[in-house]
């Protein structure tokens, strides 16, 4: 009986392998295009029983990166966290040229976090990311005063000159690249004043139609348009059909983790076997909470926007933590810190402020921050933020290595012909 059972299991696996590869060969490798039939609940080619077999096997985990808006460190904490994570990945994987984008399947970023996501996931030369994590950090430090307006001038002057300078920086950095030119699915929010609703720039949508494809330089300008200093940023899609009057993505979703998770779980075209949070590995990067005991806090629109953003980010983290439940410790990590008096933005010593913020970010990575616990409120974490990144880097690499020998496609990234709207599915990605 035992021998018979083993033979039956072997036959099932062989049959599954045959059907999977037949599907891939017919639908993707020989240019038959993509069909919505390959979705749970709409299966003509693969029936539900077959999909259930795939899910029972190890289809792997989808790796998601989420980056908050500016916070009390103007994005420096998240950027420094990414440097720490990329260094861990390079060291553990044994490849000094490894990049953040190699080890994540989707990225979301809001405000300055959206700028970071764009820098790390937009294709540059030879299809590699245009920036390393260290270069993205230096980009923020160098351009911090332009990206985060000073309060030492009038609103009109700040808005006009900041907008012009920032637009030029983004155009020089991203050139003619659009959402289609990102390496992996990317989500970057803004708030659209014309519809009075959040708008999510999405690579998946851009691959479907030019009406949702935007230049990356304008996406970054939109998600970082501070309404208290710059006002709105008007932009249009490549075909001019979609027009947006954008302000800071942090107003809509300062912490885009929930949006990223929802996108992955519902995007069956690119993540066909991802059904629950148990199928995810999520890294969520905060940007520091202002010291609640700070005596020099001033009442201003900018500070109230920051308070609202920090509060919303904390609530999203708690909700996501509860959603992960028993797998929270292994599948979700949140990097956040607080308790420091941040240097005022209006100081004229820009390089000194950047250096100070970098020192603060390094101290924050050494913190053991407070995290949510299912049905138990909150507690101080056992590991420092840096330790958590080190441990999670191992999980990301393990999934990366698993895919090299797996017959099942954990991710199936959509691709399109350059500057066209006809989307197809790429061959299985091992990244």
Automatic annotation (TrEMBL):
Domain PNPLA: 66-261
GO BP annotations listed: lipid catabolic process
Matches recorded under Pfam families: Patatin
Highest taxon, organism lineage: Eukaryota
InterPro entries documented for this protein: Acyl_Trfase/lysoPLipase, PNPLA_dom
Motif (DGA/G): 248-250
Keywords: Hydrolase, Lipid degradation, Lipid metabolism
Listed GO MF terms: hydrolase activity
Database matches in Gene3D superfamilies: Cytosolic phospholipase A2 catalytic domain
EC number: 3.1.1.-
Domain notes: The nitrogen atoms of the two glycine residues in the GGXR motif define the oxyanion hole, and stabilize the oxyanion that forms during the nucleophilic attack by the catalytic serine during substrate cleavage.
Function, as annotated: Lipolytic acyl hydrolase (LAH).
Membership in a protein family: Belongs to the patatin family.
Protein name in UniProt: Patatin
Organism (species): Coptis chinensis
Lineage: Eukaryota, Viridiplantae, Streptophyta, Embryophyta, Tracheophyta
